[in-house]
Amino acid sequence: MKKINVAILGAAGVLGQRFIERLENHPTFEIAALEDVMVGKRYEDATNWRLGERMPAWVKDMKIVSTDSLSLTDASVVFSALPGGVADKIETDLAKKGFFIISKASDHRMDEDVPLVIPEVNANHLGILEEQRKKRGWKGAIVTDPNCSTTIVAMTLKPLWDQFGIERVVVSTMQSVSGAGYPGVPSLDIIDNVVPYIGGEEEKMIIETKKLLGDGKHDANLKVSAACNRVPTLDGHLEVVFVTTTKKAGPAEARKAFQKFKGLDYPSAPSEPIIVTDELNRPQTRLDRNAGNGMSVVLGRLREDEAMGLAYTVLGHNTIRGGAGGAVLVGELCHGKGYI
Amino acid sequence: MKKINVAILGAAGVLGQRFIERLENHPTFEIAALEDVMVGKRYEDATNWRLGERMPAWVKDMKIVSTDSLSLTDASVVFSALPGGVADKIETDLAKKGFFIISKASDHRMDEDVPLVIPEVNANHLGILEEQRKKRGWKGAIVTDPNCSTTIVAMTLKPLWDQFGIERVVVSTMQSVSGAGYPGVPSLDIIDNVVPYIGGEEEKMIIETKKLLGDGKHDANLKVSAACNRVPTLDGHLEVVFVTTTKKAGPAEARKAFQKFKGLDYPSAPSEPIIVTDELNRPQTRLDRNAGNGMSVVLGRLREDEAMGLAYTVLGHNTIRGGAGGAVLVGELCHGKGYI
Amino acid sequence: MKKINVAILGAAGVLGQRFIERLENHPTFEIAALEDVMVGKRYEDATNWRLGERMPAWVKDMKIVSTDSLSLTDASVVFSALPGGVADKIETDLAKKGFFIISKASDHRMDEDVPLVIPEVNANHLGILEEQRKKRGWKGAIVTDPNCSTTIVAMTLKPLWDQFGIERVVVSTMQSVSGAGYPGVPSLDIIDNVVPYIGGEEEKMIIETKKLLGDGKHDANLKVSAACNRVPTLDGHLEVVFVTTTKKAGPAEARKAFQKFKGLDYPSAPSEPIIVTDELNRPQTRLDRNAGNGMSVVLGRLREDEAMGLAYTVLGHNTIRGGAGGAVLVGELCHGKGYI
Amino acid sequence: MKKINVAILGAAGVLGQRFIERLENHPTFEIAALEDVMVGKRYEDATNWRLGERMPAWVKDMKIVSTDSLSLTDASVVFSALPGGVADKIETDLAKKGFFIISKASDHRMDEDVPLVIPEVNANHLGILEEQRKKRGWKGAIVTDPNCSTTIVAMTLKPLWDQFGIERVVVSTMQSVSGAGYPGVPSLDIIDNVVPYIGGEEEKMIIETKKLLGDGKHDANLKVSAACNRVPTLDGHLEVVFVTTTKKAGPAEARKAFQKFKGLDYPSAPSEPIIVTDELNRPQTRLDRNAGNGMSVVLGRLREDEAMGLAYTVLGHNTIRGGAGGAVLVGELCHGKGYI
Predict the structure, then answer these.
(1) Residue from C108, C125, C237, C317 carrying the catalytic annotation
(2) D168 Cα to chain B: minimum distance (Å)
(3) Whether pTM exceeds 0.90
């Protein structure tokens, strides 16, 4: 089968690097173009490679291209790792030209006619694409996936929402430094320290969760609170979750709901999207972030809670499930559903 | 004025070291005896000194003594840094013999006739000592102060409780490794990691908070949830707090309540027990833990909260305010009120 | 081909865990027995598994056995991850009974008739085994491999020694906490800190290097200095090396010698034992420790040195190349040479 | 006594902040002007204050000024915390205008007629100022102090040099992230990592050491090697030192030389510039960096060395002794000697 050529926007950054890692030897997609600001440079020379494994040899000599020079004959699908703010216009222009954009940027996430998708959670939201194309007169399209911290908790809220309903959720996060990109968080700010604030993050968690749990037209009706904290870890966001369900649900019933939550049949989809653990002191950031090849979330400390009803802790890999891995899975879903 | 001689139990541990630091040049108390397991050794030889400042010269040659050999003529007041479990019998025995014990151990905290005291919060609970002595037939007494994580949040709950009432509180902590003593947390467990569980800690936060906010006879009637996490910081516990007050209180009213919360007139008491900050990204563990000589808590990110009503973040120094400093302040209070 | 059954001594510790990891699906060896102090327990219950990947399922139900109960019909080869001091007698007793011991413990390393082997460096030292058996009247044997920090630098010294001779070497190390086992280094000792001393480590580097570079009978004649430091990293020892060669050698000649240093043809042997890098700021502990599946060392910053002649920096994985991986490679060598 | 008004160049950076900290309540100097790029802003608004203690209240409302607007009537002495490269022209221009510059920048350090001074080491080098002024026709002057890593080791080399002579020195450093300023080292680069290279640092250590130990006209004749490494610590540079002295010196003789090394009688000068410790595992970065109010260096692990003769480990505070504190002491020296 001929593979589908794809371009990566923002390819030299940490998130762009993860895209390259996740798309290496991919059965459906093939990297055909790498976009970033240092146009014309060899990828190796334009990049401060930050992943543990060495840069793949085949990518070193690829030349960085500009968005203007991208052509549909080169690549029809675009994974965007552009920073928020920058992404808006570039993605819109490319979608007009006919590119199918899968974006990690926040700029279009809350547009009414742009799907915000976690494949296991709300694949049906892709249906809105028809309206998007009609309304905007685009040949291409924009699909987004959520902020990393939202993705991790939303995967665990979905089965509760479907089975019991949710009145209110309180989330407190402990997020890794890779979430801020590179150079990102200065070491002077985070060694022996916790920073109790990440700009825009709490708002994203609140509004994106409601869109994700909604029916694709209207947001879900629940109350969400979030406190986002940066801690001295490299990868993996750990989130403490307190939930009041509409229909009372004890830990045993919640566990069943989590375990019944189904994996999809795509190359990047983990067989077990939510891994429930009984070990008292798990999930731990360093030990569990690579579960399911970085695509599962690990849920533990599930217990009855005095003030809210139900409490648990969940961990996910922010730059894989909450980053490039999640977006690639969205791409696979779009391909599987015939949108690509 | 002649100073009051005091003994320290568990003097060689990290908490014992903090007691020595906080009692150096104290206007009321004078260290007369150091107890620990390595009886007979010089203090310097028995101790792996872990504080940033060097061990004071005068303490190096003091000989470690056993609890059996403690005599009332040497020291009538005892600060106990004993580990939970070990403390129970030793403290009881010493109280019988006439010693006035101020204990950091959890063993007697929840005894009905033992005061659990944060001086700014519930000094009046000391009144129960009369009953304790009568009932137990002791000449001495046991007074306790709370677990470190409880102390920090309880100081901020008190003004809300008094002014608005509290229905429910949800707390998620990010606690430093010094909270586990020495050797405590192995570095292999915590570098680039978060551990989402600290044995017994959540239960303590729930029951102690209710006792502290109670009237001295009965626990306060509110719902408390806690999730306790260990993060890679050295000192300082950061706690995210969500509160539903009985009478609705916005951030502005809460702020006023926090700022009116009064400091006491004792040597270790900070003039501002709760420091409220408006900087978006404060309090931070490393930058704020020494506020008020380690005896203030720093509260920030005060905001309206969708799911619970009110949210904020508070930081305190776990081995000073939540440890030796807090206990010394209890001692000063007991002295000021004539119990010592 | 029938695999050779092996036992692991000290199987529940961090090093024992690495042995299990490295021997999983091994073409020659099959784990038949796990020894540790908690005799009779299921392996899963006896172990605080500290590696990033989860404990393999097949090992969970294996029962911990005692050294007394080990029988030659169960396993004829023994990998020892015992602590120094404990290893001496147990290994001797087992060798008497006929077991072939490959030991990571330091106890027998410097015995004249015990080979201390890095397969790429001094495979010929195995010849001394004949004398060992004759002299000691053993059916079994003891082979050792070096201390982790020694292994890493010795691999780079060997090609220099062979080609140019070495007069003096100065090594300053920056070692990870996993080198101290588990629980090992308390987090209070190492967060935001460097500890400039590791008990016994410098002596081992000095004497073991001389034995490794010797002819199997006599130590090599060179001067070695070492300063061993503990830094806040998890895995990987970084070592700064200054060398005065006997025959003058510039960086270009040294580079050729390093690159000609040959890999062996065994399952655990990396094709490139010494990877030379030109990137100015490499090797880095976290980014390079897994090179060659953790079995290569990465050498960089090769340069002329004013005071000593030649300088470079080398990194190796302390619990893989310097630990279980290195010992498994010794086992493969012994098997390949017909000793097993 | 009327204090001398001083200006700080680069006042908003981390080093500038340290200057403010060290000059608060200084008996001789008074801060009269703060220079940085955000001209016109209040100091508080222009600064991301990174020190543990809060920004002093009196400094918050000072307005940032430009170098052009600095006038001799405001401040005649200038402490420069400018970055290398930027400093060259600005400092030259100000010296021409009559300002007395004490600079932490490297730009003029190696100029023949510019003194490079550690007060305890080579106060006599100030004599060259006469030549500087004559040759350059300046009313003002430029005095520099060394790079942080150089300062720390040079203080310990001086007594050895004077008493025994030195043939060769090998230094391997473990440097904190604060050495790179703010934002400086990205946390993604240094958590769980060591970086074996710091641009320009090794060259500075080599050439500056020779100038410092020279007679003020000619460099000292010794061989110096350096390897500079960045480790995950906040403050404090730990340096492993191997020395071959000209006249043989054992550890006992070296210790005497270190202990005889005299402190000066200036406000910032520590009574004991070199603190020698016998504790096996000291100096440690976090525990010892504040010795002598951050102005002493702590030397330990003094021992005979097989390859080089003598070995030891020394620690100093890089942004105090190796930074603002060192420069303020140079200012005090210049004032004491009548140059200011």
Answers:
(1) C237
(2) 34
(3) yes
